[in-house]
Amino acid sequence: MKYKRTGFTLIELLVVIAIIAVLIGLLLPAVQRVREAAARMSCSNNLKQLGLALHNYENTLGHFPPGIITNQSDLHLQNGQATGFDLLLPFIEQDNVQNRWNQNSSWADPSNFPTTEAIIKLFYCPSNRADGSLDFQALAQNLGRALPNPAATDYVFCKGTNANLCPQTLLPASARGPFDVNSRTRFGDIQDGTSNTFAIGEGTGSSSRYQARQTYDATAPATDANGHVLRIDQGWAVGSVANSGMAMNGYLYGCVLGVTSQRGGFTPPYDEPMNNRLVLASIGYDQSCDNSETTIGIFDTVSGFRSLHSSGCNFVFCDGSVRFISDSVLADTYRALSTIAGGEIISGDF
Length: 350
What we know:
This protein is of the alpha/beta class. The chain has one domain (about 45-335). It contains seven helices and eleven strands. The chain has a five-stranded mixed beta sheet. A two-stranded antiparallel ribbon has the order 1-2. Strand 10 and strand 11 form a beta hairpin.
């Protein structure tokens, strides 16, 4: 009695494999879209929590925290004691980190290394990373003193339309955002309306998508002494920025502030578009306290807002709402959304 052997032929097996490959090819983009949607929602929730923290801080102290805290003699902001994120720690259930902070010393003092290096999950956008730090050891060797490796962040406070970095705020009123060096913005100061004013936006750090540029007009990324392309990043507890000498040596970083243009209040404002692949580092030149200069490489600079989301960034507004703003937003509207008293009329479509 003969038995008929059953099974797949080679052709049938190849057809099945081909079908599975096609299905996987169709499925992977869908899975990636779902993951990104979840990450973007988580990022939005992080900003929502930071917005609530800002409101609780304002309700407790009567004003928003300053973006950077420093003394009047710290012209380069390199000895800044802290940032607004330090002050928000008790309002985001990070009292244990805040209790280690020596408020009488700068972020770079050894007594503050444990705070400066603390990884806080809320400060990272899941679309980009879950943790991360800046490597300051080359800079420490150059300066001849110990420095921490500061924990990073993917969020920055809105400084407005003018990047000037000075212990005193002497910017044109129309250019000011809710946060600046030693600022204390109250709800009553936000004349343009809290629902029309950015508070905190995304500032994706250490991503290959966003490379650092050295000057406003640069069309190529900056490199270090070994020729490696520099990625922009910033530490949540680091109030300092590079001075002109550090910038020339390739020490280019962002800071906890973000802007929509570099010299708002003057013409031209030198716009800093959202999601610009070449990110302008934060550099202080100490030429004035208003950024009225037009010479490239002389006026102070601050990084713009950026994300890994498709076509825009998440922002928490001063009223606590979180909205996704398209990177195709008109430049005038984008600048208007970043200032507290510009007097602009903004439509509901932005």
